[in-house]
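Q: Entry one of two.
A:
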Amino acid sequence: MKSLFGFMLFLLAMSGGVAVTAWAFGNEAVPLAYDEFYEDDVPLATSIDAELEDIPETFGVISEVFDTPIAATAVDAIQQQVSDPSLQEAILHPLGEIDVMFEGRPTTLTVEAEVYREDGTYILFYFTSDEDVVLALDDRIMAYYDELGI
């Protein structure tokens, strides 16, 4: 009888330990729905890819969304930055901000890029800005891909 009582005491202690562990690690806050949780934390962005020698043409396509084209000096600076051989591959690199006019109002376009060098230099550009600017850019980029048959 004494061993049965000891065994029952052992089971009670083990179940208490399991209960405390479950309570301690299972008492995390339940995350909100994606839209509620990331409402203001994630900026809206769009992307386009280009080879190094096609960057002026790519920015020409993007410039069609704005009231005035993106300055050639800004495009040259971006091309020079992404052509730097010391730039690490497959890492998002901030390239800067470009002041543009969109529908009669000034706004800022933030440019970031990932560089890949397998057969030449391939760049994936990311653009963030105000929501209406990003949506207009995305529409133009998708139309450009349709024109290319991609």
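Q: Entry two of two.
A:
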Amino acid sequence: MFSIFRSRHPGTALINGEPVLVDPKETLLQAALRQGIDFPHSCRVGGCASCKCKLVSGRVRELTDSGYILTDEELDAGYILACQSVPKGDVHIEVDLSQQRARQQVAGKIIAQEPLTHDITRLVVQLEEGLAYKAGQYADLTLDCLPEAPRSFSFASPVQADAKVSFFVRRVPGGQFTGRVCGESLIGQGITVDGPLGDFTLRPGAAPLLLVAGGSGLAPLLAILQDALGHGVARPVTLLFGAREERDLYAIEAIQELAKQWPAPFRFIPVLSEAGPDSSWHGAKGLVTAQIPALLEPGAHAYLCGPPGMIDSAEALLREAGVAREHIHADRFTNRSQGPASTRHPVIEHQQEN
């Protein structure tokens, strides 16, 4: 008798030539980590692109549309997100493991917690040893008192000779980690910094820079600017900083000091989206992305950091204005408590052949 029930057997994924068994419905990332491969990854929900890899041959079912985070060139070359790709039979993939080799876990102690706004705290950590990272990258932080709750945050300053690192932590409603950092004193407590991760770093060039930050997305952009100033970068800068209300603005003095020292034109425009009619605010109002068309300089390269909605809107405006995809760099902040990204995006098919 014909049966609609078919047994499913593990497939094989060749990862840089090493065979890995992949169980039915298992993603490439899950299979690789289960079998001991130190595969680059972070968010696991398709929001950071840390696990991008090249599909050399075979077919996969993608749980999310990777087109919003991978470039057109990467998609054309067959790149996929391992955390969102379920093989349909045997596949062959290639992945750059150099980032993982550079990754370290360094212990440290919290030496400062500075409230920047009503819901953002600057966390300063004294590491036991220096950690080599590039401005714009991020790390996974694990509090000793919350060993099962690592969270990802961008470095808010470039590498310091004294091995101090800082992060901007925004309180997430119900968040264990952010609730501790923003709600109670952790001075002297232990923390582990695991990184560096990500490739949201300043590319070489002379083109004008358009930087767009939303909320705590200001952290990596500040680090990039401070590092660039220290290395003599003299590219024109336009920095847009989006917040809801005036009380949500922070680091204004640090930005103004950067602008004074910057050896080229530097425009800083804070934008409030919820400034009421009775507000004393006389600056720009509305969505921060609405400022882009009027302020975009010819040939500018863009760096965007903040919530996915802001970045999607900014990317659309930049592409419409003729900015090439390879000159738009983005770091989308995701919230792990939101659940897997597969609940928010359609399932699609991806195939690559030799």
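A: Comment on entry two: The first helix runs from residue 28 to 34. The domain at 11-99 is CATH 3.10.20.30 (Ubiquitin-like (UB roll)).
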